[in-house]
Amino acid sequence: MEYTLKQIQAITGGKIIGSRDVVVTGIASIETAKEGDITFIKNDTLIPQALVSKAAAIVVHREIHELKKPQIVVENPFLAFIRFIENFQKENFSRPAGIHPTAVISKEAIIGKGVSIGAHVVIEDHVNIGNNVVIYPNVFIGMKSRVGDDSTIYANVAIRECVIIGKRAVIHCNSVIGDDGFGYLQINGRHKKIPQIGTVEIGDDVEIGSMVTICRSALDKTVIGNGVKIDNHSHIAHNVLIGDNTMLVAYAKIAGSTKIGKNVMIAEDVGITDHVLIGDNCVIGGGSNVYKSLEPGSIVWGSPAKPINTEKRIQVLIKKLPEMYEAIKKFIKTS
C-alpha cells in the first residue's frame, strides 16, 4: 500500500497538521507502529505513546502541539481510522467478479450482477443471489434460499433450503444456517423426530462469526433482526427471535423459542433457557445462565443470573466463607 496523507484525509475527513505529502505504507496500532505506518490515538491518555511512536503520521482527537510529526485531527479518531481501513480492505482484498468453473449452479438459480463465486460452490434450484455478493469456495446454498445484495459468505458455510439472508450480511467460515432444530417427541421411551419444515430469516447488516449454528424452526421461522452481531461458536436454537442491533459474544447458547429484544448485550459463554423473554436494552454478564424472563433494561450476572449488584455482594461473601467458617468453628468450641 502507498497513500499520501492528503489521500487518507480525503477518506477520513478532518484537518491535516503538517505535510500533506507524507507517504504512508502501512497501518498499525500505536504500540506497534513503525516508520511509514499511520496509527491513531483516541484520547489524551495515549499522548505519551504518540510522542515516542515511530509512525509516519497519527490520527488524533485534537491538535497535539508537542507532537513533531504530521497529524490528522478529527472528532472521532477511531471511527475515522475504521473508514480508512475499510477503504484499504476494499482496495486490497476484494475478490474479482466472476464464477469459478468448478462451481455447480442450478440453471433455475438467479444470479445477480457483479457476483464473485469461488471454487466448488453449490447453488441449488430457485436460489436468488443478489448483486455484488461474494461467495468463497466450498459454500453450499440450498434450494429456494435468498442472499441479499452486497453480502459476503466465507468458505465452507452451509445455508440450507428456504433460508432468507438480508443485504450486506457477512457469514464467516464453517457456520451453518438453517439446520434442523433439536425437536423430538418421546414415545414409549424412544425419541421420535419432529420434522423441521420452518426456516431462518436474517435481516440486513448482520454479521455471523465462524462455527455458528442457527437452527430452522419446526413450522414458523427463526428470526435474526437487522444489525445483529453473533460471535464465533454461538448456537441459536429453533424458533428464537433476536431483535435489531443485539450482540452475542462467543459461545452464547440460546435455547428454543426464546425471544430477545433490541440492543441487548449478551457477553461470552452465556446460556439462556427456552421460552424466556429478554427485554430491550438488557445486559447479561459473561458466564451467566438465564432461567427466567428479564425486564427491559435489566443488568444481570451469575448462575442463575440475578441483578448484578446482588451477584457482586454474593461474590464478596463467598470469598469470606473460609474466614466465617473458622469463626463459627471457634464459637462452637467455646460455647
Give a written overview of the molecule:
- The protein has 335 residues and is an alpha/beta fold.
- It has two domains: 91 residues, Udp-n-acetylmuramoylalanyl-d-glutamate--2,6- Diaminopimelate Ligase, Chain: A, domain 1, CATH 3.40.1390.10; 211 residues, Hexapeptide repeat proteins (UDP N-Acetylglucosamine Acyltransferase, domain 1, 3 Solenoid).
- Helices cover 17% and strands 29% of the residues.
- It has four helices and 40 strands.
- The strands form six sheets. Strands 8-11-14-17-20-25-28-31-34-37-39-40 form a twelve-stranded mixed sheet. The protein has a ten-stranded parallel sheet with strand order 9-12-15-18-21-26-29-32-35-38, with no helix packed on it.
- β22 and β23 form a beta hairpin.
- It is flat, with a radius of gyration of 26 Å.
- The model has no long low-confidence stretch (mean pLDDT 95).
